Protein 1
Amino acid sequence: MAAPMVLDNGSFTIKAGRGGEKKPSFSLRTVIAEHPQQANGDQKSRSGRKKKSKRYIFGHQAIMQQEDLHLHVEHPVRRGVVTSLDHSEALWRHCFKQVEIRPQESSVLLGLRPLTPKVDKQKIAQILFEGLQVSGAYVSDQCLLAMYSLGRMNGVVMDIGYETTFSTAVLNGQTYVPSTVRCDIGGDHVTRYLAHLLRGRPKTKKKKSGKNGSPGGELTLTEQESHVYNQIKENYCFLPENPTSELKKTSLYDSSRGSKTFRLPDGREIPVGGAVELFQAPEALFNPKLLSGLTSSHRSPVETSGSGISKMLHLSIQKCEHSVRSEVYKSMLVCGGPSMIPGMQRRLQREMVAVMPGTVSNSSSKYRLHLPPHRGHSSYLGGSILASLPLFHQIKMMRSEYAECGPSLVDRKCC
């Protein structure tokens, strides 16, 4: 039988590969569009009825061809939740094809966001066994998998995602649900806030600019424009250890950081070299109120009442029993794409030391903040490690079990 397939299902990207691999062999933007020239032919749906087979354009290719082919680009995962089962199935099938694994001959480990409802897991199990027809499957919490990537059974994980950030403790190898804290702020909001700052006042709909430079209006970005601003964020944004001190050095930026321009699809050029916006934008992760009035990529209001990431991490630890906190402080893991922003570790360390009890912060041996090099794909790596262990074959759902119990099997066998 083929090596297990590992799928880390995110709102921004799906990371895929074989169990035992240290990094994904294939990554795909979690977007999909129906090809304007559809193929003929029928195939059976999960309900047993015939449906027209469809041709799809996947990932970045769909974004780049959106205007030329007049594509309607879909995002089948929003805030970590699978919102389109058919499109998700098509994306996962494409991942199997790219990794060169036949679903019928392999098991799959699928990483999902924390607190995924049981009914959603059941629908996903139905896709895996009845749609993809895998031989076995296991569904797990992405934060838990991330902790496995450290080789630890106790600690706290903060996963900063594309649209949502979660912080939760892991105790004895299991997610400690009462400690879970969620804030619907992520990398996409940093990108959109960066666009607002670089473009100046956004187009508004009868709204005034908010206080403290907050957007206060609707910012409209095409998929291609969003891609350009995301590239600026990934290549140039950073977090200073002390943002107040950094502001005083802005006059030195142009000479010390050089000049660079990015071209938008409509031909406009954006100067970014030495721009103070490069560290102001990621500040939103620590202070969500900066995003007041900004709309998300799917036009819903941004939640700004939540805590910043340092407060989230601290709150998850405080929700643990006193007897285990000393162990949790020693394994504080921060992961997810936005955690790769330069300066993140020094800034978080500074803020966490300020809120930790003096008995902990006064001794560096009593706490450790982990931002490992693989933190951009920690959930995938943890899933890959788990899928490579003999234990995986004991805990996974088998096709024969699914045939007997149906989708409710996932409630009994998966975390």
Protein 2
Amino acid sequence: MTSEEFKEINLPDSLAYHFRMSIYELRGSLVVLERSVDASNPIFCLWRMEEGVPNSFTKLFTFSRHTLDSIVYSVKGFRKTGELIIEISCSNDDDELDESLAVHELNSNSINNIGVSGKGIPRYVYSYKESLLLL
């Protein structure tokens, strides 16, 4: 995404009529995160637009909202490395649900808690870019 020019982009038919999706920028590419259901199992699918080709989306990966020991509530964003920052809920020692932020590592398909937790606390993730320019 080297241009700041606005263009119309046609989504593939499999995404065109989904209303539960988010659009992000990941490593210079436009990506679409789709929330869907596959055989009654809620899933997330990540699609990437090929560089400079507006109608060429490729599915990068799919993962389930239900993992071995937690439930993925939402995707909050991406790390510079491309790993997903997610909000999860898992049972603690007292059989109560704990909510926290975690990182979903795509290559190993593992989820690692990053230590930001609390019940009923809204969590937001924003990206920033370091700059030497003064506002």
Protein 3
Amino acid sequence: LIGYGFAGVLRNLLVWPTHALYPNQLPSISLLQSMHLGGLLNHRKMKYFWIVFTAIFCWEIVPTWMFPLLTAVSAVCIIDNGRSSFVRNLFGAGSSNEGLGLLSFAFDWTLITQASPLFWPLQTKAPFYVVLPFTGNGSTYNQTSILDAQYQLDMQKYAVLHGNNFAVSQLAGYASMGAAFSHIILWHWMELWAAIQEVPQWWYCVLFGVSLALAIGTAYADVNLLPWWSIIMFTAIAFIVAVVLSFIYAVTGFQLCTCSVLVQIVAAYIHPQQPIRNMYAKLYGYNTGYQTLYMVADLKLGQYAKVPPRSTFVAQLSGAIIGAIFNYILYKSIVGVHREDLQNPIGTRLWSGWNAQQINSAAITWGALARELYAPGKIYFQLPLGHLYGFLAPFPLYFMHRLYPSQRIWSYLNMPVILTYVGWLPYSVNGAWWPGFVIGLASQWWARTRRPKWYTMYNCEANHHLTLALVIHVNITGAGGNIISFPYWWGNPDPAISSVDQCQASGG
């Protein structure tokens, strides 16, 4: 709700201007419009909906259950037949954390959809990176072995274990956040300056004030929570984060997800060796800003749909409360059935706990071990500097644009997006990116320029139909209940022998 208060304050910058396109909202508004149109056009669109919905709902049974090899078809892996770890690391893409997925092609829309090929602009499409801390022999790090009863760093225990190896560099991911700041300053300063002079409507300010007061009140419920002054400080940081994240999202449809580290670096200095407080600092300093992103996107959807502002306000407020309840219920259901898969650093082709693992790992590394890992002279000192490197990265592109304004390529390249993709590669299911690029090229270039009528009528709707079919398919076949495994065969290999794409098993 603090984020919703921010959303109201930022409407003049992130909702009303024409540069705030929000490509991710176009499929939803296209579907809503088609459902409320009458006549022959609506009949054609509803027929199109049922064709796409039925086709993808039935098809997803094949790659997700009967023929999983289709989730990552790699000719190199099939030829190698699980013999080489090098081939797995470079070409494997059957599960998260397996490989870079070079030339691996997925036929599973569950995976392809993460590339958002039907509505992201072409400049948003380009290559993913977060990891768990591991011990030197590659096993999962026992985080509680270095913490005391108050979940703070115990230096005596840490000295005995000699620290951990935070194995994979996050430099590109950190750099993307620094690049986002300078990208907005260089390319969108005039829009930012014009919007700041507007005064928001008072009820958003009231909502923000009440929500912040409740947050401060909860700070006294537990000794490990943040003090009141820290909540106010990180809430102020969240406002800046909200502007940066939401502006990038409004223009490109792309969500940067690495700003949390910048917040946790600040928290590491203010609350050293306290992972719980570091995690709460991330909640108020980053998650609040990220929630603002979703709120302003919904406000833009309301603008597209011509919904009265007060109705939008009530709908968002009640939706936030009801949604939190249902998300908690679904969370308990999924974790109860798939706990082992979510705890496994490798995960499966369908379930991966990398997001929750990343939150937990970041709290330990930045909250408890920041001084031991990232201080000057330590092994990972360069990682926090990634924000500085990223901040400098857009400047050459901007200077080239100023020198050669007729060459559109320099304004077309978005450095925060490029750096984020580079950071994603080592831990995503990378079979999605190649088909995502091909489908995106067909959609955003060929269909948009050669078949504009079809593109306007059906392209964005197709994405919504496909997503809706996937949601229903997952809830019916995989979200809970007993797992019924399909018999092992060449197209559904035993994971103990080889990965789903016939590359070497990740544990091999």
Protein 4
Amino acid sequence: MSSTAFAASAALLRLNSRKGKDRSLLLLQVHLGGNGGVAEISEAETAPQFYSWPDEKKPRVCILGGGFGGLYTALRLESLVWPDDKKPQVLLVDQSEHFVFKPMLYELLSGEVDAWEIAPHFSDLLANTNVLFIQDKVKLLYPSDHLGMNGPAKSSVGGSVLESGLLIEYDWLVLSLGAEAKLDVVPGALEFALPFSTLEDARKVDLRLRELERRKFSKESLIRVVVVGCGYAGVELAATVSERLQDRGIVQAINVENTICPNAPHGNREAATKVLSSRKVELLLGYFVRCIRQVVDTEASEKPTKNLVLWTVGSKSLLPHLEPGHRRSALPLNGSGQAKTDETLRVNGHPRIFAVGYSSALRESNGRLLPATAQVAFQQADFAGWNLWAAINNRPLLPFRFQNLGEMITLGRNDAAISPSFVEGLTLDGPLGHTARKLAYLIRLPTDEHRLKVGISWLTKSAIDSVASLQSTLTKVISNS
């Protein structure tokens, strides 16, 4: 072990061995490079600021990441019935102030939904609960539950350091940090391509499209949008953007596979292919993007502004790299940076740490790694909440079993496809599929209060659209008579 790594380890050991409320410790802020090694270490002049839990006697559950896995685990814990002395304090940490219902980000581009409907504030969602929330970014973890489940009643089994310098000690930890777009796959992607996986990404893409639309390109100089990747995300994005641009632009979709959505049900893939063809989306299948670069027209005085590249290929885990005080305390990660878990969603070797969503690498009985989808995260959150209840109350934990309910894909403002798993060969597409998809997602929104608000909003918009459509039809009939 290098001298710098040893210094960091020593600091963590001192933190782990802290007794009482001794604040005279020195904390080493560790900045980790992309390879997981120690890139820079600076010694703080003052002791770290410890998060003060409301009750020192009750269990402390810290949930890192407020996506589907993290937020829904917190809400699940809130909904369970607890003995008075066992109900845990739950703290949710996320770097954003918004929860984002990612499957409906495409509707922001089409104007079908408002941002508040699919990206409500955590403060609003948690207002009527006992769940605490901190907006901050996780910088460092030092778990110590590998030393055993049993210990002094008030001893911490680990902690996490946030970017602000706040140190949160916990008794139980849930990892649900999600993933971010992997733009370092080919040269130029980081500089010239826009990802589409967060609320900020969606806003940037929408702003860029608005800028291009204002320029009013002629038929000889159309807006050209290139979507890299033809999985679900790429196809949904291509369908949404092509519908929005109509005859003002050309959308191309590139995929290394010889088909779109290779893992999708046949009905969904067939419906998507039909829609893309009707909107004249150019499919470049069997092609690999080697680089992305900007080409300047030597005859023009300005750089070209009509091209937009959208990147939907690959993602990388946001699970922080660790420099633990002892090698055995390191989390077991797979090649994608996901924590390896047992069937109860506990991280291997860490009985007090659970991992859900993209932070979890769990294999089914057939050896297949569970896909990192919203549907999987929904179900894992339910089990993680229950298993935390069971562990805190010394009850048996339940093994997680994924139930595939089917797959859905949006294809525009009034178009979608759904292939439910409980009816083999059935696919609902077009307006019927669109309505079924929105209802399914309405039911999945986080809280009853938010579901009610969004349901009323969608119903009102639908009524307004119906009236406008009726008026347009009547106007055409009258003008033709």
